[in-house]
Design the sequence.
């Protein structure tokens, strides 16, 4: 079981980077709840940044953006990437059962991107998504899907391991996945 705390405007990363963005519709004690892609200012590199969600979570979106949690990182000019810590007791508890019930696994590039951001290596935001059967956890091969993002739309079928084709990006971006079904 993992307990993570929601981030809000004003929360800081371990290097002092501060969340300056936040939701216009979701608040905790009058503080806007932070989401992936929300603005951050880093006093170390003196550059704006954005929140990048990393690690396990129960999907929770506000206006299409994943809600940010303690342990998420700041994509700014600093390497390794600064890690956010919440200042308030507003938590989400993720059990093994929650993770097992999620239909879509973590994108395969997730671990590599996180490792690069924490190691000082140049960040790569290239990702692909693996579809898994909800009951058995087995890969869903030959399922038709559509990926929609800033760089356009791509349609295809998952490979024998249930993976989509990679989405290439030079920055953090949101990609929407639409699944049509096996052989569709």
Sequence:
């Amino acid at each position: 079981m993992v307990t993570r705390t929601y981030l809000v405007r004003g929360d800081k990363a371990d290097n002092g980077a501060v969340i300056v963005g936040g939701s216009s519709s979701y608040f905790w004690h009058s503080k806007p709840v932070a989401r992936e892609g929300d603005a951050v200012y880093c006093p170390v590199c003196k550059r704006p940044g954005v929140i990048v969600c990393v690690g396990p979570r129960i999907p929770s979106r506000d206006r299409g953006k994943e809600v940010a949690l303690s342990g998420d990182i700041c994509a700014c000019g600093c390497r390794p990437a600064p890690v956010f810590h919440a200042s308030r007791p507003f938590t989400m508890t993720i059990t093994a059962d929650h993770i097992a019930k999620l239909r879509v696994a973590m994108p395969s590039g997730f671990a590599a991107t996180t490792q690069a951001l924490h190691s000082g290596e140049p960040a790569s935001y290239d990702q692909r998504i693996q579809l898994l059967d909800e009951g058995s956890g087995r890969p869903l091969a030959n399922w038709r899907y559509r990926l929609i993002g800033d760089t356009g739309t791509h349609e295809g079928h998952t490979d024998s391991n249930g993976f989509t084709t990679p989405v290439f990006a030079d920055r953090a971006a949101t990609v929407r996945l639409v699944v049509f079904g096996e052989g569709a």
